[in-house]
Specification:
Elements (H helix, E strand, L loop, with lengths): L9 E6 L4 H15 L6 E6 L3 E6 L2 H15 L4 E5 L6 E5 L27 H10 L6 E2 L6 E2 L40 H9 L7 E5 L3 E8 L3 H11 L27 H16 L6 E9 L7 E8 L2 E7 L2
Antiparallel strand pairs: 1-3, 2-3, 4-5, 6-7, 8-9, 9-10, 10-11, 11-12
Bound molecules: zinc ion.
The site of zinc ion has 7 residues, from helix 4.
């Protein structure tokens, strides 16, 4: 962001990635931006290819956007009680790959500073401060940028790995991604990290074993946003182990045993309650092992004309 011209508005365009994590992150970013339209932000537009927005008042925008992030951090935790003392405390949902520090007063403290409420605004400021420039070019979006605010890590892109021989999840092409890549622009970091605030991630956490996530993708970004919004209301995001409801009128959730049963269980509800009318949905079922090495595996299910085909299984 060019601070030498404080009165100038800044236009930012982001193209759809064709990457399941970052496209869903882009959709989530859009939902968050929508909440502050008019507050230092204008011309927020989404179409098939991507989204654009214009910052008219940098200071106001940063303050408002930081507030929206803070207002949504609760989505990553569930309220619970200490078994011994009965004291109320929050726990991080098991599938969230953002590292946690020592709890403060029963509250989850995230190590990722954008989710540390005291620092959120400062980080957002740093992101936009370092976005516009020419020094580097982003590996994901090809944007020229001034400086990265974070290296690529699992917290903002789960498919990155410390092992160089494993590849990422980019649709249509195999890419090698390691945590050592620094050509990672602040906007892509933002889209990736904010995906954890997405209210339409379907999750099933199997204690001590693994987490299963389901995310959709479509060819057009506008369709993806619409598709994701269509099923938010059939999920129970206050539950810890799964957000797939057994039926819509009760908070109880399905305790499915594995990845296929989890997908089927969600998709049955999706067909039953949403009556979907979306062409060419591509659902990604992602398994994240619990424990110290968390290299996720995934397979995707392509749905065309109401027929689901398992396309690709990686093990
Ligand atoms: Zn980028």
């Amino acid at each position: 962001m060019n601070t030498s011209n404080p009165g100038e508005s800044i236009q930012i365009k982001i193209s759809k990635y064709n990457d399941v994590w970052l496209d869903n992150g882009l959709a989530t970013f859009y939902q968050l931006l929508k909440q502050i339209e008019g507050d230092g932000l204008t011309d927020l537009t989404v179409n098939e290819e991507g989204l654009k927005y214009e910052i008219t008042d940098e200071e106001e925008f940063i303050e408002e956007f930081a507030d929206v992030i803070k207002d949504n951090i609760w989505r990553m935790v569930v309220p619970t009680e200490d078994k011994k003392t009965g004291a109320k405390k929050d726990v991080k949902k098991d599938h969230i790959l953002v590292q946690e520090g020592k709890k403060i007063g029963g509250k989850v403290a995230f190590k990722e500073t954008i989710f540390d409420e005291i620092k959120t605004e400062q980080v957002v400021h740093e992101i936009f401060e370092n976005l516009n420039g020419e020094k580097y070019r982003c590996f994901f979006c090809n944007r020229p940028f001034k400086k990265n605010v974070k290296k690529i890590q699992q917290a903002s892109y789960p498919f990155v790995t410390k092992i160089q021989s494993l590849s990422g999840i980019r649709t249509g092409e195999a890419i090698k991604l390691t945590e050592y890549i620094s050509e990672y622009c602040p906007q892509c970091y933002l889209n990736g990290i904010l995906e954890w605030l997405d209210e339409s991630i379907v999750y099933r956490n199997l204690p001590g074993n693994k987490s299963i996530l389901i995310l959709p993708n479509t060819e057009k970004l506008s369709d993806l946003i619409e598709l994701k919004q269509s099923y938010v209301n059939i999920l129970n995001n206050l539950a810890r182990w799964s957000n797939i409801k057994i039926d819509l009128d009760r908070p109880d959730v399905e305790n499915t045993p594995g990845k296929y049963s989890t997908f089927v269980s969600f998709y049955e509800n999706f067909l039953r309650y949403v009556e979907p009318d979306f062409d060419n949905q591509n659902w990604f079922v992602i398994e994240i092992p619990q424990g110290s090495v968390k290299n996720p595996k995934y397979f995707n299910i392509f749905v065309e004309d109401d027929i689901a085909n398992v396309l690709n299984v990686t093990v």
